[in-house]
Amino acid sequence: MSTVSWITARxxxxxxxxxxxxxxxxxxxALAAISHGMGVPPSDWGPPVLIGxxxxxxxxxxxxxxxxxxxxxxxxxxxVVHVLTTxxxxxxxxxxxxxxxxGVTAITVAVPLYAAGLLADSPRLGLALxxxxxxxxxxxxxxxxxxxxxxRRPVLLGLVYVLIWEGLLGNVVTGTRVLSIxxxxxxxxxxxxxxxxxDTTVSAPLAVVMTVLVSVGxxxxxxxxxxxxxxxxxxx
Amino acid sequence: xxxxxxxxxxxxxxxxxxLSGVSRWYGNVVAVNNVSMSLGPGVTGLLGPNGAxxxxxxxxxxxxLAPSRGTVTLDGGPTWRNPEVYRRLGLVSEREAVHSFLTAxxxxxxxxxxxxxxxxxAAARRAVAxxxxxxxxxxxxxxxxxxxRQRARVAAALVHDPQVLLLDEPFNxxxxxxxxxxxxxxxxxxxxxxxxxxxxxxxxxxxxVSGTVQxxxxxxxxxxxxxxxxxxxxxNRPHVFAIRSTDDRALAVALMxxxxxxxxxxxxxGLTVRAGDYGAFTRVLPKVxxxxxxxxxxxxxxxxxxxxxxxxxxxx
Lengths: 236, 316
What we know:
Chain A is an all-alpha fold and 236 residues long. In chain A, 76% of the residues lie in helices and 0% in strands.
């Protein structure tokens, strides 16, 4: 583990807001288990729990908390200056932080999604959801790490993307789904384990290409922004 | 206390930090206005009142802010968007930001590893010893006092033995002993050939640490050079004090006999005293009060705001 990853992970797990990660995945598993236990048909509870909660809320919100935590929180409290006053090329700072963010998000979301997919249909659907969510974790993390460097209010901007763009416009204006990580994840999962429980309008090849583009594009943007990082607001 | 002079590393080579016509503005507000200076080995104080642009200037020197106009270079290379400068440059920023979940040793060691030093443990031990933090090095930084946190940050900034060290208000929050130690450390680093620049808004701090000062007022470089010359200009100006005591009239009479006092005005809210010699007056006041059985309840230097001191300096 690189020193940057080590400091990032310690900082992430040492902050209280990390505890905010736990309720949502637990809720996902609990709802799936209760629905399954009460004999509700998966066609009834599958879409709202797997997509409505799992992929539309748990994945982006966990990614938002972690993604803005690995760099945004350090920018917020000023500790980022310590890492930046070293001769490390900026990509060697961004990539380890991104890896920690994506890894923590993937683990936190993939496990409950696997369990929910297993209860809803089969181990294959569970695995498909876990794999697709992991890919989504990378894309979301790249997006939110970059957003941390673009604005002093990364959580707010991230919530606007998740709630307004993906949550609202994604359901009303179907064209926006082409620019929605949530729909890439649904398309990827549906491609790995085709099922009626997952409804998608984005093709799998497009989802793959866009996931890669989003991940790489926002990572490059984050590296470039970090090169031009300015300490703001202090003019004394 | 350890002897710093023997512990401070000698700079293998010297570095020069050059600023040429540097300005920085935020919208319509000009924070730094056409500043040029060249900093070589030794300790230089960057002096100025709050809001003078010291921090903005330091951030530009440290590569954390792009100049709106002009250039900032370290040994010919730009500091902005150039991480390579941090092999030769260390920064202790004013903002008290430290990874509170790490111990001081972990923090300094992590910095040594980020610099990819050949023996990070040895470098971390040396840097921690340099700031006298060995006794508390295994405690979490979150449990430290403000002064100790500051020392941990200085250790991290020194771990790679930079030729240039920039410190923004380094004495903030330090107790007198820590302050003295930090002053000795800066002295010894300067003597060893390092280029040290520290900012402060306190004249006495600068006086004790550096012989050379750069004085900033309202974003401009108001004075530059030997501190004693500048200090003389500062001390020779008249000082005004507001005093409240148990017997203002008796104190006024007694003070008029003192050569350091050039005028006394008795008002309803107390005395207004004009002193020609700041040091002599502040030394003699307690003696005079004691001799006449008067208790001084309040002593406020009325024009002691640095803004007024520096304004006087600029006019001079």
